[in-house]
Amino acid sequence: MKILLLGEYSNVHWTLAEGLRSLGHTVTVASNGDFWKGYKNDIALVRKSTGLFDTLKYSFLVKKHFRKFKDYDIVQIINPMFLEFKAERILPYYKQLRKQNKKLFMAAYGMDHYYVKACTESGIFPYSELMTDGKFRAIKDNIDAVADWIHSYKAELNRFIATDCNGIVAGLWEYYMSYKDEFPTKSCLIPFPINSASPAERFLQKADGVTRFFIGIQKSRSEFKGTDILLDILLRIEKKFPDLCQVTKVENVPFETYRKLMRESDILIDQLYSPTPNMNSLLAMSQGLVVAGGGEEEPYLAIGEERLRPIINLPCNKEEIYNTLKDIVLNNSRLQELKKQSIEYVEKHHTPAKVAEQYLKFWEQH
User: Fold this and answer.
1) Residues 268 and 294 grouped into a single domain
2) In angstroms, what CA-CA distances link 229 with 213, 224, 321, 328?
3) Half-sphere exposure of 28 (CA within 13 A, CB side)
4) How far is it, in rounded angstroms, from Cα 340 to Cα 244?
């Protein structure tokens, strides 16, 4: 098949393209590389700024390529906001894609109308970035998310595309749960694709008794993801046990630099408010790291996993997090088994070819 993957989040589309190509399909990835992360693409659709010149340049670039985005068997957009325009300007491009190609699918990989609505109105999640302990987290990112996605043209765009497209593919359990009630026959959960690291790329735990933590910080989203809280707790533990604990913190670095720095650690500290391992976590697990973050029971069962439990599931309570991580530092012999489970988990559920086969089956059925 001839396939167009439009947009990028955390290298999902590029990795999916690799899996599809390995099965003999022709795939084009058009994206902005997910901004400063710099992921690979075949066609770069990059808007350098919101200034007039860069806006006109980007508009020209998009129009030029969209004339050529036709006669694909499958088009998948990364989100309703799949271009760097205001929502009002995106709908005509969606309709153009719909008219010029055979099938069009929408990915549910991140923040959108249905996810924000599910978090704030449904009560189906024990916690989320927007709600903890049954209360709205009234931080700027969350206030902006509600304004952006509930009562806005973005919400209208999302509802139109979800209703009109051939199908909706969710990459995480919580995104699938946000869509499944309203779109039970056209939505599905397919795990994110991850390239497994070779044995030579995997970090073996050193026999010096030191537990090496790694935490990546996006400055603009630290409070939203809870990494500000997690970093403070890690630094408390490092200060109390300097001979047993080492913390590596990185901020807003390109993907390849990030992966290289992460590789020499034992534990990745991930988002506090997500119940599911995301692309960042899965990348770490593929390299033999243990993830401390979202590992609730429901996401395991949703993909049919009954045996492996590689993730150290962190509660939302600060002292409980402190005690959980402190216990790991004082008893880190259990990390070896969790490292093995991490690798097995990714190879079982997330290899690009296996994931690509699930996409092909869903696309063909819809």
Assistant:
1) yes
2) 15, 10, 10, 18
3) 18
4) 22
